[in-house]
Amino acid sequence: MKKLKIVSVALLAAAVLLTGCTKTTAKKDYILATGGTSGTYYPFGGAIANIWNTKVENMNVTAQATGASAENLRLINKGEAEFAIVQNDVMDYAYNGTDLFAGEKLENVLTIGTLYPEVVQIAVAQSSGITSVADFADKRISVGDAGSGVEFNAKQIMEGYGISFDDIKKNNLSFKESADGIQNGTLDGCFITAGVPNSALQELAFTAGLSLVPVSGEAAESIMGKYSFYTLTTIPGGTYKGTDTDTSALAIKATLAVSAKLDEETVYQMTKALFENLDELARGHAKGAEVSAAAAVTGVSVPFHPGALKYYKELGLITE
Fold this sequence. Notes:
single chain; alpha/beta; 10-stranded mixed sheet; 10 strands; elongated
């Protein structure tokens, strides 16, 4: 009887030990909301998920195809995704309940960091004589699809030059339709917010040609002062055929958003793993070469998650 009791105690101890091991090694499942499978966000998100899954213990992150920024932010807010790649201007609208999210304030979203620039490219016909956004008055200008982020970019930049949609002959067209309009002479110019180079503008440059309109000086400073999600960038000369000189432009940034409900330590470990494996990110996707911890704290208008903030403070990138 005594022997049976000893065996029973030993088995109980083993069961407790095994239960503890199971809890310790159980993987945490997370969703990283991205974009359409033909865009940049989806494969780029896959490269990020791969780093987290291999560099953070007990991590299982799935990159999920979605309808991109606006949908992604709603998914986080509803608890249906923990992470997302979004445009930082759309994230600002969502967090503050303005523009695209007027009357719909999403407070369960915070920032891990910005990733790479998506440039507001302003292209015009070479024959238009336009050299500044201020010249757009009475011109035929495409400002992107109605209700799109591009349309808000166009509105904000034109505002910096003292003009509005009422001052132009406004068209709401896709990137391809905008480029076609400049080529066939039905448009004078267009706004395209996208990575550089953009395929529609590349095709236009090879066929009819184009000129790029800069955003710089006091106007750029005024716009960035009012809308903190913009950053100043340069479109290098030669990006498009016939554009031989650098062009100053404003950019919004693809941004890694996170649920405010995730704990500080988890987000800290994931932020650290991402920025300490940027060489691997660059091998996983070309845009990874444009990502850095120093740049990740720029263009941020929605508060950092405490876990990400802890990492940036350790690097001395944020001091307050």
